[in-house]
Amino acid sequence: MASGAPGAGAGAGANAAASATSxxxxxxxxxxxxxxAGFMVLHxxxxxxxxxxxxxxxxxxxxxxxxxxxxxxxxxSIRGTLAGACGYGKVRATLRIMRERLRRTWFRxxxxxxxxxxxxxxxxxxxxxxxxxxxxxxxxxxxTILLTTTGRRSSQARTTALWAYLDGDALVVVGSNxxxxxxxxxxxxxxxxxxxxxxxxxxxxxxxxHEAEGEQYRRIWQLVSAAYPxxxxxxxxxxxxxxxxxxxxxxAPPGAPGPHHNPGNDR
Length: 267
Description:
Blueprint: H1 4-23, H2 29-48, H3 54-75, H4 78-86, H5 88-115, H6 117-130, E1 138-139, E2 142-150, E3 157-167, E4 170-174, H7 185-192, E5 195-200, E6 203-211, H8 214-227, H9 230-238, E7 244-249
Antiparallel strand pairs: 1-2, 2-3, 2-5, 3-4, 4-7, 5-6, 6-7
């Protein structure tokens, strides 16, 4: 009967609260109250969050999970307190879900940081000024380069800071666009004009681009996703084939001027 469900839920909640209170003896009351109040606030926010963007829902869910874990720690031993209520196996499954949500939220934040307008405009300028020093030239273990393409519509030089991966003597860049449904503009530019320039540190080199296909694509995808597992999440979110562009060194014509940085529209 439907009317019996709330009473059953209330009884279970009371038993869980009593168990947590009993296990929390010896913990300062202010710390128990803080954990309980925070849990209630986040639980209310989670219920109201159904209209939030997905990344914000993931962040709220991850925060709720962290606080639930903290509440268990405050109440006593995680294994001792929760094993009797729902079984240690269920706790481990919950922790795995929390960990995966945190990972995906982190990947989303990294992707947004790389494609926002301020980063696209400022990163190339600082990179050239410092020669790619520190985090400007390598972040999260990934090499950062500047790729300058020719706009397919404007015919002007367009520079983008990208993570790159060594494949023999070539460099590979990934058109993930932070998991966006849209292929980045620099990919279309290279399809129209495969000749481009890259800057690695203070070294400038002319390159010719081609997109990996077939077995080469599968091999390179394993290479880049092992270096940064977030690409697997980006491929799922983008719901498209993410281009893997191979940049092979191209001898520059004698006396040819290098393209100038223009952080505007990719096109």
